[in-house]
Amino acid sequence: SGPADALDLLKCGPLHFAPPDLETFPCLGLAMGAAKTGGTAPAILNGANEVAVARFLADEIGFYDIPRLVEDALTQVSAVPAPSLEEILAADAAGRQIAMR
Question: pTM of the full predicted structure?
């Protein structure tokens, strides 16, 4: 239970869906690309995103620097298909390291 009432889809009225705006929400596009690539790409994205958001919250970077840092990590670290746990953890660490630059 949270601060809002649970959503009752039978009482809320019609819902309208539209394709996501990837220009307005570039990190969504990056996440979709990482999911499509698979392997360690989502771990690279996750590590970079966590560091970039933390840096933004610490006033070290601007909000619009977040997708740039995440994209930098995804382009600079090669994704490994069918990774081991060690490779996933290494990919996350590599994404974090790039986002610290």
Answer: 0.84
